[in-house]
Batch of 4 targets.
Target 1
Amino acid sequence: MTRARALDSPALIRSLLLSNPHDLPLLTERNPALAEALLSGNLDAFSRVLLEQQRERALREQERLRLFTADPFDPEAQAKIEEEIRQRNVEENMSIAMEEAPESFGQVTMLYINCKVNGHPLKAFVDSGAQMTIMSQACAERCNIIRLVDRRWAGIAKGVGTQRIIGRVHLAQIQIEGDFLQCSFSILEDQPMDMLLGLDMLRRHQCSLDLKKNVLVIGTTGTQTHFLPEGELPPCAKLACGAGQEQPPDREAAGTIKHSVKDLGRKKR
């Protein structure tokens, strides 16, 4: 069977993708719609999604050819041609990066540690880019320190979004390994993360992040505590890790499919 015929056969494409374990994770990440149809076990569903994406790609290719044959003095055509060239450069840059630095496309595990506040075990997010240490209102209630909130310090926390600060706990103990450290918390009304250790706390206790050893070092005591592995992260951290850049699905699908068909050709030879 020729490569051209292979690319026209949804059944064969589906078989090739299922038989190549290296392609499935890439397809799942970059083209979830096609991956879902592939793993559903329904050939008709897979064929519908694949053919729709192929039609969209063909229409874009026709538009691209039309632009290249359009009036060279048409500003709209020139702008679209410029964008096409820019996008090609971006894709070439991405291809080189995937070849030379594939690890940059993986998910980065956020830095969390185990700790305790008022005897209650927590998973705290370590963020040296955050100005202040924060705790959710729900977590403060669980740790029984909500009674210490000074509501005169209410306000608005601004970052990627905005959240209401209901007040501040001026002093409480946080336990990291065997150390009991003094800490203050700004209490946020609606925060899915239990606690975030910000720069105020990290500076106060001269903490350092040793990413080679994968530990947080408490400089004032020398105590080290390991950052949590991905499997032990809280649900809110796992959701954040799953977010990423979207890729045009049909273009990514085409690349994955061509790669599989090329592998088939090598096996036959």
Note: The beta strands are 112-117, 120-126, 134-136, 155-158, 162-176, 179-188, 195-197, 208-210, 215-217, 224-226.
Target 2
Amino acid sequence: MSGAAAKKASSGPSGVVEWISSACRFATDRNDFRRNLLVNLGLFAAGVWVARNLSDFDLMSPQPIA
């Protein structure tokens, strides 16, 4: 088996740790514009999702007159 096939065949915590470390390297590379753009758009989309789905009040609804 080649190195890539052997690496793919192995499963378990080492694969998860490797995936997390590669994701961290992907997110923290300062020299790649496209990568930074992708990460920033993903963070923006996550923030929009949180703001739309986890807010307790509707800003467009009529407010009670007090």
Note: The helical segments are 3-9, 13-28, 33-53.
Target 3
Amino acid sequence: MMVHNIFMFGELPCVQQIRNKWPDFRMKKDARKRNTLKEYGVYKLRYNALRKNNIIPLEIQEIADKEIYNCPRDASITRIVQRCQVTSRPRGNVKRWRLSRIVFRHLADYNKLAGVQRAMW
């Protein structure tokens, strides 16, 4: 009788686990690194070019050194790890779709990926 009253008033018990949009904490970290790279990557590239240029004065190179030191470490392209967007698997990824080989094959089997066709011979 009590269960019937809960459904009458529209209050459903929480059956599913509430999750965020990342499958893993590592993906959340990777997303943060990608956003940092998007924001600071261009500046870091320019500062690095100024630092390594031998033609410009030494004072400008030192200023560029200080500016690069003040940039976040996650603004480097080498700190980004290629991970599957569905499972957060770090190995065996197909770069074009950012999916692991397992998820890629599953989606390709059911024609869920545009431009992908099973090999037939």
Note: The helical segments are 2-8, 25-52, 58-70, 101-109.
Target 4
Amino acid sequence: MSTSRAMDATGAEDTAPNTMMETDLNAVDNNKQDRVNNMNSVEPVKIEIIWSIVLFFVFGHLSAIYGLYLMFTSTKLLTTFYGICSWILSGLGVTAGLHRLWSHKSYKAKLPLRFILMLMSTMAFENHIYEWCMDHRIHHKYTDTNSDPHNAKRGFFFSHIGWLVVRRHPDYYDKCLKIDMSDLKKDPIVMYQKKFYIPLLLLFCFIIPTIVPVYFWDETYVNAFFTSTMLRYIFTLNMTWLVNSAAHIWGKRPYDESINPSENLSVSLGALGEGWHNYHHVFPWDYKAAELGNYRANLTTAFIDFFSLIGWAYDMKVVSNDMVLKRANRTGDGSHPDGSHPDGDGIWGWDDSNISIEDRKLTTVINKKDD
């Protein structure tokens, strides 16, 4: 998740060796060691607090607490329901849009759906698409190292919110110049939002959510602003942040026990399906972001599947059961019905050059179409 300073980067690709064949264990080990050597610099961690962002989050959380109080004392029930619907819409903008579509390219979306997801993600106000995805791709390539913007090894508070209120580690800026962002630079929806992000976020995150209850059912401005706007906004932020913090600390690791990301049902409920995090870090190109045969705690998958029925979502990548079981057996912690043992990959999504040919061949693409 990202709510930080906007920063451009070149489209140059990472120069790490592209040796990630599942069947070549020596190559996997070599690649893992190469990543460890390059990701943990001797540059000491320096804490430089950005007080303007601290004040913004303090005001935001105090406003949300007041909104919660108003929700139980004076806010109309319809306003509360509207706030919940706004949370789901903005959350899906993050999960189905920023995360699974633009960061990982786990499926493709036609222009109308991309435009809708852009507006929904703008309502969430977690930074514009381009930088959110750059942060997230770096997070996957260099998970829990100094290059990772929300390195969970620096503690729960840092990975939850602290990373947003301090200057980034120098290793992060180095990786910004190397991570491949060329696909997003070619997307007109992404570039449009990046250019007009401030007026768009003011309109869709704060102004419209406040005006709608006042105009349509005579809610007070105070109730509308603090309940349907600020409480909804801060709640959405924290649900996203829990994926960075709680889902990197607590839970089982059935697919790869050597990495911190974990399977966490509670986070999945709050983050609309993004808490199956050990699976997701091992198979980030799977559009379900989970090994689930249904929509249990994964509303985002149901959302994408709905739009696939009308043809707006297509080329949805799915990892086969054979590939999942093979990986669980080789690197999991044993909590999967068939899994155990350690070895991590660093892959940001579908077009990452480190995906092996074997993994590509074993990936199923649903509703495939030619662009």
Note: Confidence is low (pLDDT under 50) at residues 4-35, 339-345.
